[in-house]
Amino acid sequence: MATTADRQHYTLQTIFSFFLGLMVVALIGVGVYTFYPSPGDAIQKKLQPLYDQQNPLNSKDGGVVATGTVAAEQEAIQKQINDLNSQIQKAMEPWSRNTSIILVIFATIVMGISLIRSDQLRVLSNGLLLGGLFTMVYGSGWVIASGTSMARFFVVLFALVVTIALGYLKFVRGAQAVAMVPAVAGTASPGSAEIGDLTGRVAALEDRLAAAASAFAPTRDASEKDAQ
Q: CB–CB of 147/43 below 8 Å?
């Protein structure tokens, strides 16, 4: 029966594994965004000055339809805003797809690392596995926003296959390997008993041989008579 200390220890291990998983997905996400930034950020900086120019013009018309020079300026600014938004959308689609692929690859690597020495490093292994799963979900979300149906299908399919394969290696095959250990240990006991039995038989045989040798050996008195 588990004691209170055991339950607390198990709870702390679970919390640590979950926190490690969050840190892994945060590190991967920040790393990818740092070395492969979004192209929309640079274009977004160009939009703010246009919005700053548009706001005073909108306040001049007082809610009525603008005419003349004000209408022409509003139309020109709005056209630039629409063009920049179109550029952002076109640039974000391939970036979202590539980012998703990179995240899924990193998630696969992390989940693969979690299988190494998972029995000895159970807490760290579980944390890395959770981090890989979170990263896999994060990457799948980016590919959904990419807008390309074929890329979305293949990336999500790859993520599903990797998750099932690593889950099998982690839980099914790992459980089979653990179950084989007691069976192997159980087969060692009869061997030890047989060795002990053989040792006893050898000792008994040696005792019988010693007894037989002493029975056929000449006594001291007989030896003295023969000498006389």
A: no
